[in-house]
């Protein structure tokens, strides 16, 4: 191990720091937005909604994220219908492909968490809302979802950290975030230990920051007596 390589490794890796944050945050937001309708479909009594949502979460959660990334980036571009569609400007960009794939992967996991929380809402609250004449939309917005999201905040915080870890796979499709920058530096210096130790330390600090952020949100929005 050469201590002289730590500073050059840090300088090389920091060039991908902003890109790592962009991929992480945009994928996380996409995942959270997509997770809610999937969770509502999973919790729906309608088989026409529940079965497709169950199939989606089964396939996404049961297959590796790296394979999904390869399918989206390398596979979809082989289809003429995709290349001629409005989605092609997005799917031909490795960054957008990484964000889309990681986000939709995260959505499957978050949807299962939200579905479990929806089922935990006491049935008496649903019945009381119906007795008061509240529509299903108002019931969800005013009663169910505020409780659900407050209850699953720890899980959402964990999912953000998992999305950050998933962003490291973006380098497999030529995105030069921190892991990609580290691999290039290793190829030039043949110093994998120093380089990836530095990269791991930076990822650890980012994860600690996200964890601390959600700890504060949990303390702020926690449901009393839970």
Descriptive notes:
With about 230 residues, the protein is mostly helical. The chain has one domain (about 5-220): MetI-like (MetI-like fold), CATH 1.10.3720.10. It has 12 helices and no strands. Helix 1 (about 5-15) packs across helix 12 (about 190-220), helix 3 crosses helix 7 and helix 11 (about 180-190) packs antiparallel against helix 12 (about 190-220). The longest helix is centred in the C-terminal third of the chain and has 30 residues, at about 190-220. The radius of gyration is 21 Å and the shape is flat. The termini are far apart.
Major sheet description: none
CA-atom Rg in angstroms: 21 Å
Q: Which secondary-structure class do the elements indicate? A: mainly alpha
N/C terminus separation: 49 Å
Order of helices and strands: HHHHHHHHHHHH
Q: How many helices does DSSP assign?
A: 12
How many domains, as an integer? 1
Strand content: under 5%
Please give the share of residues in helix. Answer: over 70%
Per the CATH scheme, the topology name is: MetI-like fold
Total strand segments: 0
CATH superfamily: MetI-like
Tell me what the CATH architecture is: Orthogonal Bundle
Mean pLDDT, to the nearest integer, reads 91
CATH class, anyone? Mainly Alpha
